[in-house]
Automatic annotation (TrEMBL):
Localization of this protein: Cell membrane
Membrane topology, record value: Multi-pass membrane protein
Keywords, comma-separated and alphabetical: Cell membrane, Membrane, Transmembrane, Transmembrane helix, Transport
Protein name: QacE family quaternary ammonium compound efflux SMR transporter
Family: Belongs to the drug/metabolite transporter (DMT) superfamily. Small multidrug resistance (SMR) (TC 2.A.7.1) family.
NCBIfam families in the record: PRK11431.1
GO cellular component, as recorded: plasma membrane
Transmembrane region(s): 33-50, 57-79, 85-103
GO molecular function: transmembrane transporter activity
Pfam families found in the cross-reference section: Multi_Drug_Res
Location (main, coarse): membrane
Length: 104
């Protein structure tokens, strides 16, 4: 169950990371409310997951999911660079997430 909570927390981190772009400096009310709600939910689920998972593993996986997800959505939604090097480093993060899961 902790891994499921952690995965959802990571997806919510992606949501708030991308949401920050849409808040336009917290000047747009709806994106701001959704972004802050996603931040709170993400942190709450991370906290619940760390009750049983090691903090280093949980935090690393949470950050990794957020970074890779935000990178992918940045490419897809925001027209950010999809250079081979950037994609390769995102792939390395995925390998690291899998490694942390496999060794915990």
């Amino acid at each position: 169950m902790a891994w499921t909570l952690l995965f959802i927390a990571g997806l919510l981190e992606v949501g708030w990371a991308i949401g920050l772009k849409y808040t336009e400096g917290f000047t747009r009310p709806l994106p701001t409310v959704l972004t802050v709600a996603s931040m709170i939910a993400s942190m709450a689920l991370l906290g619940l997951a760390t009750k049983t998972l090691p903090i280093g593993t949980a935090y690393g996986v949470w950050v990794g999911i957020g970074a890779v997800g935000a990178g992918i959505l940045g490419i897809v939604l925001l027209g950010e660079s999809a250079s081979p090097a950037r994609l390769a480093f995102m792939a390395l993060m995925v390998v690291a997430i899998i490694g942390l899961k496999a060794t915990s």
